[in-house]
Amino acid sequence: MRYPPVQRGLIALVQVLVMGVWFSASAVVPALARQWHMSAGSAAWLTTPVQAGFVAGAVGSAVLGLADRMRPHVLLAGCAAGAAGCTLVMAMFADGPSAAVPLRFATGAFLAGVYPVGIKLMASWSRPAGRALAMGVLIGALTLGSALPHLIGGLWRLDWRAVLAASAAIAFAGAIMAGALIRPGPQVPLAGRAGRPRQALALFAGSGPRLVSLAYFGHMWELYALWTWLPAFLAASSTAPAGLPAAAVSGIDAFLVIGVAGLAGCLIGGWAADRAGRVATAAAALAISGACCLLSPLSFTASRPWLLAFAAVWGAAVIADSGVYSTLLSELADRRYLGTALTAQTAIGFLLTIVTIQLIPLLAAAVGWRYALLALAAGPLAALAALTSLNHKMRPNEAAITITGRTTP
Q1: Range 227-233 average pLDDT
Q2: Domains and CATH numbers, the chain
Q3: Given pLDDT bands bounded at 50, 70 and 90, which one contains residue 271?
């Protein structure tokens, strides 16, 4: 029996609409830095609170088992509306970092009920043989949505408050759609009203889920720091075409690299994972993105077309494996507590992103933007080591899923 694609399409569309609030402030950092007299390092605090809020919200959700005890579409709709509301309040009333930082933290906390819950909903409508591609679609939607504020600000050169307000309005539309149209599918059951907070720790009990999570953590070390600071890297390394300000060009370039190339990478990664195997696909993506980290100083001095081509390859590779980890966890973890497992995994992963988001501007100040992104290579290298162990330590039935993307009879 084939499930109708409508629900999967709606879940992905909601992610596109809602996740724009994540980088809504990051997309207007130059304007905020000028108006609020912030340095580049201080401007990182407009992104870091979102990551910290996400971690706090994810930990709370995992401890309470919300993603497994509540109806997932209701939780998704409510949290999407909350994230949109915080962004709208910032657009209307924030007049400095002291007001913006708590609102960004609350935005991240609400998004902890959007992204992991979206993964669970997508898994509930996807059979194992095609689940990696479905996850690739979902992560691609998240990627495209996260890059939307860069496009809004780059194309129309709006005031920063207008960019945030537009992102909030789009997210409200996603919240309404989630509550009215999305429903959970048959593949992932509810855990029941009792809930088991200890399932968050059980994530590391089995070798399969533990190694998948370690690989995911290495992936996250690189991902969000690149997304946050790529516009600054591009702006520092290239000259804007005549007639356009550098901020607008870097915003459009960031949308193309993060959003468009990232979406393509997610779809290719999901398609390959269902055919060539989960681990092989993730390892290939990590090898490419790790090589891009190491080659970034050479690309810095390249002409603009070559720089953008390099950045597009990096933008596709850095996210291509993201859906693979969610797919593997959905196949290896206890299905009754999948929402809790996904939430715990993402909480730890996003905790790591706080470190790298803060680290990169410090490195840029010390050695310049040309060499600042070299530090991100540690993530892919660590993830590759975990994936290598995964291939050797999985039980035969788990290895079949990992290597072929299919369950054994």
Answers
A1: 87
A2: 6-183+198-404 (1.20.1250.20)
A3: very high
Nearest CA-CA partner of 145 in 34, 21, 267, 37: 21
Distances from the Cα of 384 to the Cαs of 103, 282, 311, in angstroms?
A: 36, 8, 21
- What pLDDT, on the 0 to 100 scale, is given for residue 69? 81
How far is the C-alpha of 255 from the C-alpha of 363, rounded, in Å?
Answer: 24
pLDDT tens readout for residues 281-340 = 999 999 999 999 999 999 998 888 899 999 999 999 999 999 899 888 878 777 677 777
Please tell me the pTM assigned to this model.
Answer: 0.79
**Residue given tokens 């979102």 in the structure block:** 50
Cβ atoms of 47 and 173 closer than 8 Å: no
b/e 329-367 (16+ beta carbons within 10 angstroms → b): bbbbbbbbbbbbbbbbbbbbbbbbbbebbbbbbebbeee
Q: What is the DSSP string of 142-193?
A: HHHHHHHHHHHHHHH---HHHHHHHHHHHHHHHHHHHHHH----SSS----S
